[in-house]
Design goal:
mainly beta, four-stranded antiparallel sheet
Length: about 425
């Protein structure tokens, strides 16, 4: 039986790779472990691991950060500006979209933060001792991570994943079948056990329908966690699990990305790029990361079998002018935008008095996504800026394409 299951998985992996709905969007030139990713919309997202990457345009361009915030094990953003990143024993917080980070919670050096959950003001952070089964921790915040209160946990088993099914009822799962459950939004937790498997991930799509990935198979509930049914698939650790609706979902096992179309009863291999974490920001846009430094992406919900091409391209459906990054900047910054139509486009920079500082684009361009670099020395070519470099202060960049016109502010800070 085991041999037939293995043969079926190999066949499925070959079949789906020929017409893959996931494609490699980015590949770091060196093999690094990537642990988690998080997006706040279809454009802005972060990937953390032995290196940290971010994108402002849906992954069209990925930028590795050179900061000290790696290796990082977990990441979660509340909105466009406020986010959190778990790096070893410290939880870091940003209030400006990831430009600057400060320590929000400090733990002993031997602990690691594996999971971060936020719902507006409420936040939960969970993790464990670096050594196997040697202590864990759970912290709670009700002010967007400004202050934290430790929630005592009566067990030594590792805590791996957090999920809430509504504002009050939430779960933290861990090793040896451990489940911590709260019914008051995270202020207090009750310990229960679900078998003896290591529970790696938990996800609720609705108040009634939830799934847990373990090192032996998938647990499924249709009554809000009162009862869990075990679906034995085959040996392996199901490290991440997510669902688009109550039928269609994905999980990671070993080097495989698996798909179910019947609520988790049956699974098929759809990619073998050694992924271990999946995140969908909406029904269509999903990302998967893992152990090879590759970032996988799908723009069709992961189920339409289209042939994978080297330069996969999805035409934008609307005009979007991204906030420049970094911002504030010195000496240069990147400006990205997308256009759903072809036509003449101009991108110009102005100072606070309305003087034109630079023309970055003034030409006909096809529909697509674009990016340019703006340097603080660019003003030396303009009549009003003969000194060679721009002064500190506020500047504006404006995109015009047909009837579309949008302006955003950026700051030069030396």
């Amino acid at each position: 039986m085991k041999k037939s299951v293995f043969t079926l998985l190999i066949f499925l992996s070959i079949s789906f790779q020929i017409q893959a709905q996931w494609y490699v969007q980015y590949s770091y030139p060196y093999i690094v472990n990537l642990y988690q990713c998080h997006f706040i919309d279809s454009n802005k997202g972060w990937v953390v691991g032995e290196r940290v990457f971010f994108t402002m345009n849906g992954g069209l361009n990925w930028y590795p950060t050179t900061s000290f915030l790696w290796p990082a094990y977990s990441v979660h953003f509340i909105n466009n500006q406020t986010g959190f990143m778990g790096r070893s024993s410290n939880l870091y917080k940003t209030n400006n979209g990831g430009v600057n980070w400060e320590i929000a919670l400090s733990l002993p050096l031997e602990f690691q933060i594996y999971s971060i959950y936020f719902d507006s003001l409420k936040g939960i952070v969970a993790g464990s001792h670096k050594d196997f089964n040697d202590g864990n921790f759970l912290f709670y915040s009700n002010d967007s991570g400004a202050t934290w209160t430790e929630v005592q946990s009566p067990t030594d088993y590792d805590l791996n994943s957090i999920c809430f099914r509504n504002n009050l009822d939430g779960y933290v799962v861990g090793n040896n079948g451990l489940i911590l459950k709260t019914t008051d939004g995270g202020l207090s937790w009750v310990e229960t056990y679900l078998g003896s498997n290591n529970l790696q991930s938990i996800f609720f799509k609705s108040e009634l329908n939830g799934w847990i990935g373990s090192n032996g198979g998938i647990y499924k509930t249709i009554d809000g966690g009162i009862n869990w049914n075990f679906v034995p698939i085959h040996s392996g650790e199901f490290q991440s699990i997510t669902f688009i609706n109550n039928s269609r979902g994905f999980t990671c096992e070993g080097s495989n990305l698996l798909l179910t179309m019947d609520g988790g009863n049956n699974w098929e291999v759809v990619d073998t790029n050694d992924v271990s974490y999946i995140f969908f920001v909406d029904d269509l846009n999903g990302w998967a990361v893992g152990q090879t430094g590759k970032i996988l992406h799908t723009t069709n919900g992961g189920v339409t079998f289209i042939e994978d091409e080297e330069n996969n391209f999805t035409q934008p459906k609307e005009f979007i002018l991204q906030q420049n990054y970094p911002n504030p900047f010195n000496p240069s910054t990147k400006i990205s935008w997308q256009s759903p139509i072809s036509g003449w486009q101009t991108l110009k920079v102005y100072d606070v008095l309305g003087n034109e500082v630079a023309t970055l684009v003034d030409e006909y361009r096809n529909a697509g996504s674009y990016e340019v670099e703006f340097k603080s020395s660019v003003g030396s070519r303009q009549p009003a800026y003969r000194t060679g470099r721009l002064a500190n202060g506020v500047y504006f960049y404006q995109l015009k394409a047909g009837d579309y016109l949008e302006t955003k502010k950026m700051i030069l800070l030396k």
